[in-house]
Amino acid sequence: xKETAILLCTxxxxxxxxxxxxxxxxxxxxxxxxxxxxxxxxxxTVAIVQGYAANDxxxxxxxxxxxxxxxNGFMWxxxxxxxxYYLFCDHDDIWExxxxxxxxxxxxxxESATPAIVCSDLTIIDAASHPTASSFWQxxxxxxxxxxxxxxxxxxxNIPGCSMLINNAAKQCSLPYSxxxxxxxxxxxxxxxxxxxxxLTVDEPQIRYRIHEGNTVGAKKVPSITSQLxxxxxxxxxxxxxxxxxxxxxxxxxxxxxxxxxxxxLSIHLNNLK
Length: 274
Fold this sequence. Notes:
Blueprint: E1 4-10, H1 17-25, E2 33-38, H2 45-55, E3 59-61, H3 69-80, E4 85-89, E5 94-95, H4 99-107, E6 116-125, E7 131-133, H5 136-139, E8 165-167, H6 168-174, H7 184-194, E9 198-210, H8 225-230, H9 232-246, H10 254-272
Parallel strand pairs: 1-2, 1-4, 2-3, 6-9
Antiparallel strand pairs: 4-8, 5-9, 6-7, 6-8
């Protein structure tokens, strides 16, 4: 049996946390451990986690007193936990009962030495848990043709971290990580593909993905090329960060990277016009 670690970052999470914790306990696959790292919450988040941990030895509160934010918090957890498989867990979602089982069933088809990610579609819900979209992939114009395109993943990411299951080979090629990464999920996807890995999909939604006013990252539509050029300065700063992150994977020039990014920006813009 593979050791399976669920990595959960919390911050002022009391509003939705219990629904998420209960959904983890309802998983059909029960051989997991949950590692929780709190980012200095000011509400009763820690007390909620400790209450669950008191009744379930699989729930482990990690000792970290630094303020890290989402991407660094998840990468800290990944670097401090040892397992065969890792799942990233957002505090405000709800996992379907088959999420872990479906992801592991697909991952077990991959050789353990191959860096791999299994992801799934998501149902989008609002703060009151009402469905607002039946498919995250459809809303984002998700293209499976780009799923294993290592160049696309240098500049865009259609794989929310909460949908990811990664193996230990994926972890190893994602650490250490560049301080310039946009988010942990985008970095891991790019790292896996640039180390000859694979990304596989569970087509049925396995998460109720909650979009509300407090999201760090949500299911926003990709901005059009026109609107992105309008905010040129912000786009340029982001592009520079992406370039320096890319340099950790490949020694391409800035001009080469910029050409790649413009190609995909144009492609997405044209797709959104359809």
